[in-house]
Amino acid sequence: MGRKESRWVDPAPLEIARPRLPWWTLLPNWVKLAIAPIVLVGMVGWGLVHLGKLVHRFPLTLVVLAAGWWSYSGFGPWWFAAGLAILFMLLGVWRWLHEPSFERFAMPQIRTEYRRCMIYTWQWRTVMRLADLVKDKRGKEYRPRLGRVRSDGWRDRVRVRMVKGQAPEQWELHASGLAHSFHAHSCRVRVLKPGRLELDFVHSDPLAAPITLPERAKESAVDLKRVVIGRTESGRPWRLRLLGTHVMAVGVSGAGKGSVLWSVINALAPAIKSGAVRLYGIDPKGGMELGQAPEVFQGVVFDNGEAAVTMLEEIAAEVKRRAESYRGLRRTWTAETGDPFLLLVIDELADVVAYQTDKGLRERAARALQAITSQGRAPGVCVLGLLQDPRKEIVPFRHLFSTRVAMRLDEPAQVDMVLGDGVRQRGAAAHEISEHVPGVAWIKENGKREPVRARAFHVTDDDLAQLVGYVTGRGEIGAVVPFTVGGAAA
Hints:
The strands form four sheets. Strands 8-7-16-15-14-9-13-12-10-11 form a ten-stranded mixed beta sheet. By secondary structure, the protein is an alpha/beta fold. It has helices at residues 29-57, 59-75, 77-97, 99-121, 124-130, 168-173, 175-181, 257-267, 269-274, 306-326, 349-353, 359-375, 412-419, 461-472, and strands at 135-137, 140-142, 145-151, 155-161, 186-193, 196-202, 227-232, 237-240, 247-250, 277-282, 299-301, 341-347, 381-387, 403-406, 440-445, 452-456, 484-485, 488-489. Among the domains are: 126-202, Threonyl-tRNA Synthetase, Chain A, domain 2 (2-Layer Sandwich), CATH 3.30.980.40; 219-479, P-loop containing nucleotide triphosphate hydrolases (Rossmann fold, 3-Layer(aba) Sandwich). 39% of the residues lie in helices and 19% in strands.
């Protein structure tokens, strides 16, 4: 009879990590005694630093808690309740008497401390773990640090210190998830310096309402490097540079390109009236846009035919003439040259360089425009091109426009075509602009990494009538030039 096999199985070795003792526990006792004062001073300093951070981040909360504890312990609950009632009453009276100062000084601090404590600090660790932004090394967790928080009402600015080895692109990929986690509409990522980011959690749109056209500036206030044509979402003026650059504004029909166009012209009105600035325009749509105020232009063409091409070639020749006359005297145009600054406005740029059926005219127009955009910045010539299709096949020289304005677009890929690769990941979602906010745009200037969101002024027919009357000196004339078909008003 065979021997039965043994059912005994050797136990597996205990699979646990060997405990690692802190290095300082291995030091001799006399060394521990010698460094004890240094360690104590370091711990006290560490505590003071963190106490200072707490006071800096929650000053209002700490003052209220200290006053509440003092009144409650010293005078009882009734005095504590009365103090709270008086505090809220004083805040209410302040807001009622002078709301602007209350919104400027008191409300931001109250909102900031509340949102930092209840929204970000409360769930920061959980969100970082679930978003895979936490690193683990040998059982130790490395987590991004929450820095300063500032609440502007419509957005929260949250500063973050990244974990070693992280890149801003990782945060850009998780921006949508972070926005939903912290109950925001969107999240934008900005790089402050190496290792430091600032996240913009947007809660509402400060550009939802139209912005009325302000009073016209005086002639001396016209600065071609800082032409005010609207307002940014942070409340600052939208200043568009015209001198030394070319501007391309892209947007679907109804996006508000006309608001940008007429806001620029309105801001330049004093200089146009004095002759310091001359406007030239091409409107292939038969004058549907520029025909609203043709009197402000030195020359305007309402088609994309021979007359339009001739105008482009004449401006290109003027660019070459100025360059030759400035040679050896100056490197850029200034008002002291005696030459007026030229602004060429082309509505529907694609109709001139791409959709023209006559191949000869199309090639002549493209050559002239390339000469103007490549050589016209220094001699004081700027091109403001408006179009709907930003593809390279439509405008092959779009890289010559150093200032780009992306209004409402159809596809996400078009955002990168207009503003450049990677800008959409940093928050410039021009394809998500609502059709109910015409004039809203994302602006990217050459040399600046971060795009800016802004809205152009809302220019009405009455504003155009006043503009024409101001420039011509004939008083207010008809608000809109009638569009005629075959000589009869339509």
